[in-house]
Write a structure and sequence with these properties.
This protein is α+β, with helices and mostly antiparallel strands. Helices cover about 30% and strands about 25% of the residues. The strands form three sheets. It has a four-stranded antiparallel beta sheet, with no helix packed on it. A three-stranded antiparallel beta sheet has the order 5-4-7, with no helix packed on it.
Length: about 190
């Protein structure tokens, strides 16, 4: 994972998924942001709504509109040994609006996993807390009932996580230029996209 830099105006996150990886993001949606993906190298298998499609660099930028459930992995995730794509899959992602919250999400989601010994058995709950505060809603049930189920789950788990001493964001994973947006996200005062 390569976080946004000044060269890209802190807008673009680059992810490299190595050959043979079975990693899959998991179905989710965003309520405040549109996302844009671009395949730089390899083949991306992307779910938009209920439809899976394979994208390549020739497809250009792919819009993932807010409220659309999506998921992604390497196109060859389920390939038999020896039939997978050669090389890394490289994708770039940005959100609209660009306000630093996407970068905060990635930094905290990956840093807490790296520091999993610190969180111990609470790591899954910590990960859900990061999702809750980062406009990332997991698909708990298919269809419209999923919205209610996910929001209900978050409403129950948020106070539980806080009671256990967890918080959505940590100083050690937050660059100084993102402190204000982090405080807005934690306090629920970040302006919603209209």
């Amino acid at each position: 994972m390569f976080y946004p830099t000044a060269e890209t105006g802190y807008r673009i996150t680059r992810a490299i998924v190595p050959q043979g990886s079975k990693f899959q993001v998991g179905a989710h949606w965003h309520e405040e942001y549109d996302e844009y993906m671009r395949v730089i190298q390899g083949r991306l298998k992307l779910r938009l709504g209920k439809t899976w499609k394979v994208y390549t660099p020739e497809d250009g930028e792919i819009l993932i509109a807010k409220d659309v459930i999506h998921d992604l992995c390497r196109a060859d995730k389920d390939a038999k040994p020896g039939e997978d794509d050669e090389g890394d899959m490289i994708i770039e992602e940005r959100s609209d609006p660009v306000d630093g919250s996407k970068e905060l999400f990635f930094r905290h989601a990956f840093s807490t996993v790296t520091d999993k010994a610190v969180f111990g058995w609470k790591l899954p709950l910590q990960q859900l807390l990061v999702l809750m505060y980062s406009d990332t809603y997991i698909e708990t049930l298919p269809g419209p009932a999923g919205w209610y189920a996910t929001h209900g789950l978050y409403a129950v788990l948020n106070p539980l996580a806080r009671l256990l001493g967890l918080k959505p964001f940590y100083d050690e994973y937050t660059p100084s230029r993102l402190v204000n947006i982090r405080m807005d996200m934690e306090g629920g005062t970040k302006k919603k996209k209209t």
